[in-house]
Structure formats: C-alpha cells, structure tokens
C-alpha cells in the first residue's frame, strides 16, 4: 500500500469530520471534543483537583468535573479519563479529541480483523468515552 494514500485518506477524513462538526456544533449535538474543548476540560479538572487538595471552596462545576473525570499521566502527557470506582487499570476509558479519532478508528479497524461499524463500535466503547 502506498504510504501517501494513507495520508490522503486521513486528510479527507479530517476535512469531512471538521465539516460535520461545524454543522453539528450549531445544534449542540456533538459527542466529539475539539482540541480546545479537550484542553479546557483538562485545565478545569486540574484546577478542581487543586482546589480540593488545598481546601478551597468548590463550586458546582468543580464537583461535576471531579465526579466525571480523572487525569491519567502517561510519561509527560496527561490524558482525561472517565472517573473510576477503583484503581483498576482495565476499567480505564479515555476521552480523546478530534485529532486522535482517525488513528483510533484505523487501529480498531485493524485490531478487529477489518470489521465494519458494529464490530468497531463495540471495541471502541470498551476503551473510549463519548465527548462532553
């Protein structure tokens, strides 16, 4: 397979996804986090954790963030994950931004033996959360 073809497919995918997001954002009907939304949630969760550790007063948004999200540090990067009931590493569900979606779909497609939508949805839902 031509390595350049994969790049072209990714470019086309990103363009179409961006177009869909622009249309859906006006309806508030998206479950895909933009890079800015992801960064803002990460910043807000970190701030809520800081407030809790220092004993500052938490507002309703802080409680919502602390009840819904955790931050997992992997090397130098920080990932937003869904709140877990225990420290079980198998129960981690990641949030991702729009830039990561193509690679996730491509890897899942290969890992599931090139299954189509339903097979991939099942696999993806075990590792990833829907957006905000």
Automatic annotation (TrEMBL):
<protein>
    <submittedName>
        <fullName>Uncharacterized protein</fullName>
    </submittedName>
</protein>
């Amino acid at each position: 397979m031509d390595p350049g073809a994969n790049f072209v497919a990714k470019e086309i995918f990103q363009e179409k996804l961006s177009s869909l997001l622009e249309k859906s954002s006006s309806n508030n009907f998206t479950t895909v986090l933009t890079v800015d939304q992801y960064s803002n949630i990460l910043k807000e969760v970190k701030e809520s954790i800081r407030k809790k550790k220092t004993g500052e007063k938490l507002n309703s948004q802080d409680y919502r963030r602390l009840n819904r999200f955790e931050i997992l540090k992997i090397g130098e990067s920080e990932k937003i994950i869904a709140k877990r009931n225990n420290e079980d590493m198998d129960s981690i569900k990641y949030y991702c931004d729009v830039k990561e979606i193509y690679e996730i779909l491509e890897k899942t497609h290969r890992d599931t033996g090139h299954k189509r939508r339903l097979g991939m949805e099942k696999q993806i839902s075990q590792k990833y959360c829907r957006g905000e």
